[in-house]
Structures are given as structure tokens and as C-alpha cells.
Design goal:
- The complex is a heterodimer.
- By secondary structure, chain A is mainly beta.
- Chain A has a single domain (2-83), classed as Folate-binding fold (2-Layer Sandwich).
- Chain A has one helix and six strands.
- Chain A has one helix at residues 33-40, and strands at 2-5, 9-12, 17-21, 49-55, 63-69, 74-80.
- In chain A, a hairpin with a 4-residue loop joins strand 5 and strand 6 (74-80).
- In chain A, 16% of the residues are buried.
- Chain B folds into two domains: 27-111 and 184-256 and 347-419, FAD/NAD(P)-binding domain, CATH 3.50.50.60; 120-181 and 257-345, D-Amino Acid Oxidase, Chain A, domain 2 (2-Layer Sandwich).
- Helix content of chain B is 29%, strand content 26%.
- Chain B has helices at residues 8-16, 44-57, 92-109, 127-142, 152-158, 185-198, 243-248, 312-325, 370-387, 401-404, and strands spanning 34-40, 62-65, 81-82, 120-124, 148-151, 173-177, 181-182, 202-204, 209-214, 220-225, 228-237, 256-268, 276-279, 284-288, 293-304, 334-345, 351-354, 360-364.
- In chain B, strands 1, 2, 8, 9, 10, 11, 17 and 18 form an eight-stranded mixed beta sheet that branches. An eight-stranded mixed beta sheet of chain B has the order 5-6-4-13-14-15-12-16. Chain B has a two-stranded antiparallel ribbon with strand order 3-7.
- In chain B, helix 2 packs parallel to helix 6 and helix 3 crosses helix 9.
- The longest helix of chain B is centred in the first third of the chain and has 18 residues, at 92-109.
- Chain B is globular, with a radius of gyration of 22 Å.
- The model of chain B has no long low-confidence stretch (mean pLDDT 96).
- Classes of the chains: A mainly beta, B alpha/beta.
- The A-B interface holds A 1, 12-14, 18, 20-21, 33-34, 37-38, 40-47, 50, 52, 70-73 and B 242, 244-245, 248, 253-258, 302-307, 311, 313, 346, 402-403, 415, 417-418.
Chain lengths: 86, 420
């Protein structure tokens, strides 16, 4: 897989670290343990388009927000995670 | 269909008759309107579940529903290793139960699954790793499982071709389980299918589940499929790799990520590797099939996937590990590589449990340890489906263990699916 990094251009996946499904935010303490169980363990694990976080560890060291089809490995969009809406 | 037992006598009779009298090993059934139990997934686990439902509990109005052909998913994509060298008390008795079932499986099924107890050797490359292997070996022995700790000379006797004095990963010794080994993956599927079909189970191929039928109380009362609606009192999912997708039809979210794991086979070679050998300084395992091909694999690719194929960085990584362990393989050519989709749970252990949806049961989350578990997985899932309570050796495999904190983290890796 080649990932089109917004800073570095198309780069090989071996430069990247996969973090998993892009979750909006860690729950607050007041949200209770169910919210934390959901955040830490439960996954949508969609077969199809999935929004996820990748880290360009061996490149610009930027966290990326990636939309990718898990059935084909096609990268549908790659933007900066810092611009992700919370 | 009349049962046709397999034996040397039957083979001799067929030989004289020109082998024209062999019948199909199982019935390719069409779906009926209603069953007692539907098992979704015609892989090893699903077929074993159906077989043990019939054999142990007399429940024969059972359908196994498979979207493709039986054994065409992960049952045909694994590396055929059977073993029970686990550390944690939730795991050891379960996998040992499985290994004991493997030991009597061929007689029970009247089918040659080519179970070969050629041993598994986990290599250690440091004092600390030897300590942890000693601990695991002791834990196994406390559960009545065989385990032998070998020193470097003992390993050298078994596998003189290893790179013992590797500058980075010298071989300090290894943990050997002699009763472990390999089995023929297709033979396992065909054997369970034939034995289940003989007992009245309907095996329905090319029938994809597209949804669940639920009554007003939310209870699952059947499945919607590409071949129409099929009703049942209970529905079990044995679709590891796709558990999240099938469970989503019932509105469930699971502590599972789907990942791709690659495997490789070399051209056929003369016998060279005595059993299964694993590399302790990375993640690499290798054995030799009876046809002579070296069967090997390593880590997950590391990202979520349903694609059944991986990428080149892992191919490179696995081949590098092979070279670090046994430089002699450098001259063998890789014949094929393929990928299978793993249900990776967030603690690396499987789930055999009821779901929050009444009437719906889950067998999944096998990570990359599903093949060895096939008989015990079917045995315990059948027990759960028949009695509505977990089998004693599978009580730890609860779905709610992530919320309750009773996770079974065999590797101690934490809640990160691609590290399990």
C-alpha cells in the first residue's frame, strides 16, 4: 500500500504506524465505566469505508486522518488529524 | 444417504471394483423451513459444532450455513498447527481438551485428518526468555500437559541447521511440547462435514446470511439468507474473521478488529524440519508439510482488513526472520503466499458466549489460534447451544470480560489488537 501523505506525498506503508478507528475523544471521568469500556474495547470494525488514524512515524511524524476501504485497501482520503472535528 | 464407512477393507473392495462405488462424503442439502439450531459458518468450527451437537446432545435438526463452500475461508488458509502450550489457567485446559480431541479425532470421525504429533519447539534467545518459558512449561505441567525445557545442546540435537551462534539472536534453548504437531486442514473440514452429515445435519453451501429474523421481543428466531428465510430456535455464529460484520446485523458491536495474516509455502523439499519450530526473537513459525513444502508465517500486517491479501513489508519481514533463524532456507523458493482474515480480540483470546441478543450465540475472536482449537471450539459451542451454559473448560471466554476486567491477556500486550 502507498499512502498519500499530505506533507510527504505518496509513501510506502512501512513508514506508517496504524492506530485504529478514529475515535472522536477519550471519555470524561464522569461518563462512567461503560463509556470507557466502549472507548477502549468496542469496535465498529466495518467491512468497507473506515475512518482511522495513522502516524507517519518514519516521515513527517504527523498524525493523519485516513478514510480507507477495508475490503480493498484503497485510500479514499488522507487529511491531517489535527483538523479532525471533535 | 447411506453411510459408507472408510476402512482398508472398503478400499480393497473399491480397488477391485475400479473405485466406481465411492459416494459423496456428505449431502449438499437445500435449506428447510425450520431447524432447532442454525450454525452460521461452514468452516472447521461451525462443522465441529454441528457434529458435536448431534453426537453429544442428540440435536440433529441442525443446519450449517456457509456463504461459499465449506472450508473455503480460514479453514483453508491456516498453517495447520495443533498445540496446547499455553500459560494462563483460562487457556491451558481448553487447548489441552482440544489436543486430546485431536488425538482421537480420526477414529471418532472415521476420516484421516493426517494428525501428526511431530512436536512444537519454541526457541528462546535470552536468559529472561528462558525464565518465562520455564514458567510457562511449569504452568502446563501443573495442568497435566507435557512440556520439556531443552538447553542449547538439546535443541542442536533436534535441529542442527539452526543459526545457534547468531550475533543478535543466539539460541539459548527451547520449550518443547512433544504431543503438539500438525493436521491436514482440509481433511479436518471434510471429516467433520461427513460425520455431521451422517448424523442428519444439513450442510447448506452458497447461502449467505444477510440478516436476522427477530420477534417482537427482540429474540432471534432465524436468519435471512441469499436462499430465503430459515427459522430456528437458536442461532450460533462461527464466522471468525467476519464476526463483527455478522453481529452488526443484530445491532451488536464486538471487542474485535479484523486483521489480515499472511502465510507462505515453499517449493517441495526433502524432509528437513522435524516438527514445528518458532523463533522467539520475533514472530516466525515454520513446519514442513507431508508434501515437502515449508509452511511458514509471522506477524499480522497490522491494519484492519477484510481483503484476504496482505502487503510486501510483511513478506520481507517474515523472510528476514527465516534467514535469521535458519540461513539454509535462503535457497528455497517461495511458491505461494496468501492472507486470511483474523478476528483479533482486544486481549488475544477467543469468545464462546451468549450475546446480549436472546437466541443469538457467538463463537469467534480466535485471533490466529483458531485451527488448533477446532474440535474443542465445536465441543464447547455445542455445549453452550444445547445447555445454555458454558462448558467447564471454556468459562473464561466470556463476551463481558472486557467490561468486568477479567481479560485473558496471554501475551500481556494490552488492548491493542495488532499486538496480540
Amino acid at each position: 500500500m502507498i499512502i498519500p501523505c499530505p506533507y510527504c506525498g505518496p509513501r510506502d506503508t512501512s513508514e506508517f504506524f496504524f492506530r485504529g478507528e478514529a475515535r472522536p475523544q477519550r471519555p470524561q471521568y464522569e461518563d462512567g465505566s461503560d463509556a470507557f469500556v466502549d472507548h477502549v474495547y468496542e469496535r465498529v470494525n466495518n467491512a468497507g469505508a473506515q475512518v482511522e488514524h495513522w502516524y507517519h512515524a518514519a516521515g513527517c511524524r504527523t498524525w493523519l486522518l485516513v478514510k480507507r476501504d477495508t475490503r480493498t485497501h484503497a485510500f479514499l482520503s488522507v487529511t491531517l488529524a489535527s483538523e479532525q472535528k471533535r | 444417504m447411506e453411510r459408507q464407512p472408510y476402512s482398508l477393507f472398503a478400499l480393497a473392495c473399491q480397488a477391485f471394483a475400479g473405485h466406481r462405488g465411492w459416494k459423496p462424503a456428505w449431502r449438499d442439502a437445500a435449506p428447510k423451513e425450520r431447524y432447532d439450531v442454525i450454525v452460521i459458518g461452514g468452516g472447521g468450527h461451525g462443522l465441529a459444532t454441528a457434529y458435536y451437537l448431534a453426537r453429544n446432545f442428540g440435536i440433529t435438526k441442525v443446519a450449517v450455513i456457509e456463504k461459499g463452500w465449506i472450508g473455503g475461508g480460514n479453514a483453508g488458509r491456516n498453517t495447520t498447527i495443533i498445540r496446547s502450550n499455553y500459560l494462563l489457567p483460562e487457556n491451558t485446559p481448553f487447548y489441552e481438551h482440544s489436543l486430546k480431541l485431536w488425538e482421537g479425532l480420526e477414529q471418532d470421525l472415521n476420516f484421516n485428518a493426517m494428525v501428526s504429533q511431530r512436536g512444537i519447539l519454541n526457541l528462546c534467545h535470552s536468559d529472561e526468555q528462558r525464565d518465562s518459558f520455564e514458567r510457562r512449561g511449569n504452568a502446563m505441567r501443573l495442568h497435566g500437559v507435557d512440556a520439556d525445557l531443552l538447553d542449547s545442546a538439546g535443541v542442536r540435537k533436534m535441529a542442527p541447521f539452526l543459526d545457534f551462534d547468531n550475533a543478535r539472536f543466539p539460541i539459548f534453548g527451547g520449550l518443547l511440547q512433544k504431543r503438539a504437531g500438525t493436521a491436514r486442514h482440509d481433511g479436518v473440514v471434510w471429516g467433520f462435514a461427513r460425520a455431521a452429515s451422517d448424523r442428519g445435519v444439513d450442510i447448506i453451501q452458497n447461502c449467505e446470511v444477510t440478516g436476522f429474523v427477530r420477534d417482537t421481543g427482540g429474540q432471534v428466531t432465524g436468519v435471512e439468507t441469499s436462499r430465503g428465510t430459515i427459522l430456528a430456535d437458536k442461532v450460533g455464529m462461527a464466522v471468525a474473521g467476519n464476526s463483527s460484520r455478522v453481529a452488526s446485523f443484530a445491532g451488536l458491536r464486538l471487542p474485535i478488529e479484523s486483521h489480515v495474516l499472511q502465510a507462505f509455502v515453499s517449493e517441495g523439499l526433502k524432509p528437513v524440519i522435524p516438527g514445528v519450530i518458532t523463533f522467539g526473537a520475533g514472530h516466525f513459525y515454520i513446519s514442513q508439510s507431508d508434501k515437502g513444502g515449508l509452511v511458514f508465517g509471522g506477524d499480522l500486517d497490522g491494519y484492519n482488513s477484510y481483503a484476504q491479501r496482505g502487503n510486501l513489508p510483511i513478506v520481507e519481514d517474515v523472510c528476514e526472520e527465516a534467514m535469521a533463524l535458519m540461513p539454509m532456507v535462503g535457497r528455497a523458493r517461495v511458491l505461494r503466499s496468501w492472507g486470511g482474515i483474523m478476528d483479533m480480540t482486544l486481549d488475544g483470546s477467543p469468545i464462546i458466549d451468549r450475546t446480549p441478543v436472546p437466541g443469538l450465540y457467538l463463537n469467534g475472536g480466535w485471533c490466529y489460534g483458531g485451527f488448533k482449537a477446532t474440535p474443542a471450539s465445536g465441543w464447547c459451542f455445542a455445549h453452550l447451544l444445547a445447555r445454555d451454559e458454558p462448558h467447564p473448560v471454556a468459562t473464561g471466554y466470556r463476551l463481558d470480560r472486557f467490561a468486568s476486567g477479567r481479560v485473558i491477556d496471554e501475551k500481556g500486550a494490552g488492548a491493542q489488537a495488532n499486538l496480540q
